[in-house]
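Design job #97: recover the sequence.
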C-alpha cells in the first residue's frame, strides 16, 4: 500500500481499512506514476495548510495520470471543502465504482455514504421551455449540455450559473439562475427570435456554365475586287467592237470582189481590176483578224464577269452597231 492509500485512510478515519491489501492502481507508465505521487504529496500538504482550492487541481491531475480509489476519495473531500457539492458528489460516486471494481468493499461503502450525505444538499437546475430543434445548442457555464439533460434536472454546485441558447439564423439568448444548497431552480428559456434581416439561408452561388468561344471570323481575302466586273464589261465591249469592225470589212471585201470580177473577165484583171482585187483581199484579211480578236475578247470578258464576286450593283452593257462602227454603253 503506497502513501496515497494510507493518506486516504487517515483522512477518512477508518482504521479498519488499513488491513485491506492492494491499491488497484491502473497500470500507468513509470514516469506518470512518479508524477502522480509527487502531485498527490503536494496536494496533501496544501490541504494541511487549509488551501483546498490549490490542492484540488493537483489531485485531479494525479488521478488522470495514475487512477486510484484513494486519490478519488481525497479529491471528493477536497471538492466538498471548496463548496463544489455537485463535483464532490460525482467524485464520491466514481470512487465507489472504482473501489467496487478493485474489490475494496470498505472503500466502496465509505464512498457511497459520503455521496448520500451530499445528495441531501445537492442543488438542481431545470430548463423550462427550451427550444429542442436539431439546430439548437445549450451551454451551462460554458459547457454544452447533451440533449438528454434538456428535459430533466441538472445537478449543479451552489451559486449563480449562466445558460446560453443558440441556433443558426437566430438571436443568441442568455440567462442566469442562482441556487443554494438543496434548492431546485428553474429557468424559463423563451423561443429564439430570428436574426434581423435573415429570413432564409442565402441561395447557393450561381453555377458557371462555360460556353465555347465563338468561331473565328472568316479569313479576309482582301478588299472586294470591284474592278473585275467593269474590266470584264470593257473587254467584252472591245470584243464586240472588233466583231463589228470585222463585219464592216467583210461587207467591204464582198463589195470589192464584186467590182473586181466586173473588171477581170476570164480571170484576167486589168489595172483597175487588179487594184480592186487587192483592196478586197486586204479588207477580207482585216475582217478575219477582227472577227478572231473580237471572239477572244468577248470570251475573256465573259469569263471575268462571271468569276467576279457578287455585288449589290450589277453592271449593264449596251452594244450597238451604227453604220461602219459600234457603240458601247456601260453602267456599273
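Job complete. Output follows.
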Amino acid at each position: 500500500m503506497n502513501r496515497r492509500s494510507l493518506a486516504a485512510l487517515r483522512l477518512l478515519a477508518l482504521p479498519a481499512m488499513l488491513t485491506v491489501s492492494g491499491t488497484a492502481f491502473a497500470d500507468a507508465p513509470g514516469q506518470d506514476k512518479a508524477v502522480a505521487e509527487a502531485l498527490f504529496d503536494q496536494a496533501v500538504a496544501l490541504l494541511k495548510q487549509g488551501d483546498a482550492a490549490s490542492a484540488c487541481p493537483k489531485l485531479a491531475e494525479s488521478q488522470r495520470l495514475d487512477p486510484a480509489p484513494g486519490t478519488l476519495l481525497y479529491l471528493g473531500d477536497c471538492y466538498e471543502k471548496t463548496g463544489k457539492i455537485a463535483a464532490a458528489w460525482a467524485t464520491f460516486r466514481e470512487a465507489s465504482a472504482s473501489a467496487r471494481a478493485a474489490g475494496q468493499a470498505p472503500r466502496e461503502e465509505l464512498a457511497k455514504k459520503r455521496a448520500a450525505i451530499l445528495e441531501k444538499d445537492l442543488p438542481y437546475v431545470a430548463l423550462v421551455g427550451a427550444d429542442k430543434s436539431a439546430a439548437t445548442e445549450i451551454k451551462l457555464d460554458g459547457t454544452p449540455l447533451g440533449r438528454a439533460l434538456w428535459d430533466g434536472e441538472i445537478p449543479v454546485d451552489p451559486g449563480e450559473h449562466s445558460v446560453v441558447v443558440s441556433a443558426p439564423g437566430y438571436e443568441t439568448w442568455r440567462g442566469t439562475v442562482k441556487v443554494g444548497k438543496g434548492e431546485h431552480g428553474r429557468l424559463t428559456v423563451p423561443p429564439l427570435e430570428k436574426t434581423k434581416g435573415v429570413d432564409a439561408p442565402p441561395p447557393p452561388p450561381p453555377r458557371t456554365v462555360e460556353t465555347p468561344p465563338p468561331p473565328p471570323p472568316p479569313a479576309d481575302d482582301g478588299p472586294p475586287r470591284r474592278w473585275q466586273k467593269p474590266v470584264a464589261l470593257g473587254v467584252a465591249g472591245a470584243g464586240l467592237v472588233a466583231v463589228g469592225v470585222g463585219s464592216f470589212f467583210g461587207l467591204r471585201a464582198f463589195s470589192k470582189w464584186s467590182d473586181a470580177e466586173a473588171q477581170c473577165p476570164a480571170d484576167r484583171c486589168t489595172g483597175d481590176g487588179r487594184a480592186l482585187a487587192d483592196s478586197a483581199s486586204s479588207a477580207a484579211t482585216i475582217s478575219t483578224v477582227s472577227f478572231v480578236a473580237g471572239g477572244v475578247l468577248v470570251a475573256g470578258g465573259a469569263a471575268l464577269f462571271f468569276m467576279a464576286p457578287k455585288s449589290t450593283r450589277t453592271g449593264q452593257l449596251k452594244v450597238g452597231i451604227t453604220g461602219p462602227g459600234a457603240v458601247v454603253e456601260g453602267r456599273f
